[in-house]
Every structure is written in structure tokens, then in C-alpha cells.
Amino acid sequence: MKDKFTKDFKIKYVIYFGSILILGFVIMVTISILTDDSEDFTLITNETEVIGRVSNVERNHGTVFFNLNDSLKYKVRGSDMNNYAYTDESFFFFLMGNDWIEKRTGTDTLLIERQIRAGQSENFIFAIGKQLNAELKK
Description:
2 helices, two-stranded parallel sheet, single chain, alpha+beta, 9 strands, elongated, about 25% helix
């Protein structure tokens, strides 16, 4: 069967479609950079005080971004914070909206209070950058 398209025709459209792909990639990266607001979030360290109700949680590349009381913005590297005494052992997956979170200045401990049912809640503890109850690791 004879080829319907000439060599010049093929080269022209390969360059055309390649250019569109590259342009699309550049536009995608530019939008990603412009919409990145991770710098607006305060990184939680030992010297940070955090007290309030979690209103929104986002996870991205091992970092947990969350809002307290719909206005204060914090971030913590949750991929290296585990407490193996819990079913959801990683802080990265543990924190949820409507949790009460408390961390005092000068400590590395995050206390999370989660409402189980009306009038009943449970407390959970995580330490910044530490593995707790490692002997229970599965």
C-alpha cells in the first residue's frame, strides 16, 4: 500500500503537535506556580502555638496544610509523624476537618481531640518529626 502522506507533511505536523504539547506543559507549570499558596501557611515548629478547630485539610507531597477556624493557616510535614498505637498511624492521613488541635509553645506535641459522638470525644497525640509507639509497628 502506498503511503498517503509525504515526508514533508509528516515532519510539519510532528513539529506542530510537539509545539502544542510543549506549550501546554509550560502553561500547566505556570498555572501551578501562580496558584501555589503554600508560602501563606505557617510551618509548625516547637516554637509555634496552635489552638483551634480544623476547618479544612489538604495533603500534598508529605505535607499537611490545614486551616483553623477558617482563617489561620498552618502546615506540618506529616509524613514523618507516626503513632503506631492508632489505626491511622500517620499524621499525614489522620488529621480531619472538625478536629480540635492544640500545641503549646516550646513543645513538640500535637494533641488532637476528635468528637466520636455527641458529648463524647477521644484524644490523640503526635510529636513533630517523631515516631511514637514504634514497638507496635506492624
